[in-house]
Design goal:
Helix content: 25-40%
Number of helices: 9
Radius of gyration: 21 Å
Largest sheet: 6 strands, mixed
Low-confidence stretches: none
Structural class: alpha+beta
Shape: globular
Distance between the termini: 50 Å
Length: about 375
């Protein structure tokens, strides 16, 4: 059964439409364009029956049908279970590398509604919106349909500061679920991930916005310059991932994984593995923010490690590779230093507990730094 929502209520921040209007003018003239989508599992298309039924592809398909003269390229950079903290670290490789003309950013159900994620989200927005390719950017805010929880409040603060258009499922789909006009199980199996019907509704909210922009594309609008002064301390815009192809850590018992990474969701690649207690790997990095990214596994038991910054063992942070959820292995990111002095630091990851029957080794995917 097809359900309807009041998509007109979805456009929660008008923003500056100069880039969006110019995008549509170019598309109408027959230019070549690259359409990119950066987010979590919803953007990836989780639970939709096939990739062409996910909201990202449906939005892409709207452009294809609306502007038949233009050759569009589709880049879906959704990675399940990840936040804007990881998004800003991978934005260069996963979407900016393709010189995007259009970018959707979607992390509102992956981030928490905190000042920390407001800062990481701002870093991501600044990196994409401020890139040399000047893409038209749309912020998309999804929601948990049972609790109404999302990071939309903090994300919209960033969107308003940068005068970016944004659309919301909180003001469109969610009220219909609360009123039981749309049974939750008809559009989502877990109150988080839309199924095929749910993705169609999300796409409807977005394409409704695009239709309205199209209707006013000839109305003149002055370009908006990105503010030089950020809204937050903004220590995440220049995030860098340290993996085995771009760093030379000191390894004692850790081995590099050189398995070829085939696609964006092939996430446990380019890192290091270890399985014996006492194994260690040490990095010398520079920045004021440091995070360790590793695999939490549903296959248990799994090893436990600690991360030690600048030799301060008393402040060691535990990295437990045992994942208590059931949906699959998690690419987990653990912040180990936040707003410390911007200089060179050492980061050591050391295994402190292993088991004879460990189901998997410890997998260190990357160390992420920024300043």
């Amino acid at each position: 059964m097809a359900y309807e929502v009041n998509a007109d209520k979805g456009w929660v921040n008008r923003g500056n439409l100069y880039r969006m209007k110019e995008l549509m003018k170019r598309a109408e003239a027959g230019d070549r364009m690259t359409m990119t989508f950066l987010g979590g599992s919803i953007t990836q298309g989780s639970v939709s029956s096939q990739y062409t039924n996910c909201y990202a592809y449906l939005v892409f398909d709207w452009f294809v049908k609306k502007f038949p003269k233009t050759a569009f390229t589709y880049i879906n950079a959704g990675v399940g279970g990840t936040t804007s903290q990881f998004g800003v670290a991978r934005a260069e490789d996963d979407i900016l590398l393709y010189k995007p003309d259009f970018a959707i950013i979607e992390f509102s159900v992956n981030d928490e509604n905190t000042d920390f994620f407001r800062e990481t989200y701002e870093g991501l927005v600044r990196k994409i919106y401020g890139s040399a390719y000047e893409p038209a950017v749309l912020l998309v805010h999804n929601i948990c349909y049972d609790t109404g929880i999302s990071a939309e409040e903090k994300h919209r603060e960033v969107g308003a500061y940068y005068n970016l258009p944004s659309v919301s499922m909180k003001t469109t789909i969610y009220p219909e679920v609360v009123a039981e006009a749309i049974p939750a199980r008809e559009i989502t199996p877990d109150d988080l991930h839309p199924n095929t019907e749910g993705h169609a509704l999300v796409a409807e909210v977005i394409t409704n916005f695009l239709e309205k922009v199209y209707e006013q594309k000839e109305e003149p609008e002055v370009a908006f310059s990105m503010p030089q002064k950020p809204l937050t301390i903004n220590a995440y815009e220049r995030a860098v991932r340290h993996q085995n192809y771009n760093s030379k850590p000191v390894c004692q018992g850790f081995e590099a994984d050189y398995t070829l990474k085939k696609y964006v969701n092939d996430i446990f690649r380019n890192g290091w593995t270890a399985g014996k207690q006492g194994a260690s790997i040490s990095f010398e990095v520079e920045g004021s923010e440091i995070a360790v990214q590793y695999r939490k596994s549903v296959n248990q038991p799994a090893p436990i490690a600690v991360a030690i910054v600048d030799g301060e063992e008393k402040n060691a942070i535990v990295l437990d590779a045992n994942f208590e959820e059931t949906w699959g292995d998690c690419l987990f990111i653990q912040t180990v230093a936040n707003h410390i002095e911007n200089k060179k630091h050492t980061v050591e990851i050391k295994l402190i507990e292993t088991h004879e029957n460990d189901a998997v080794p410890f997998y260190l995917v990357s160390v992420i730094t920024s300043c």
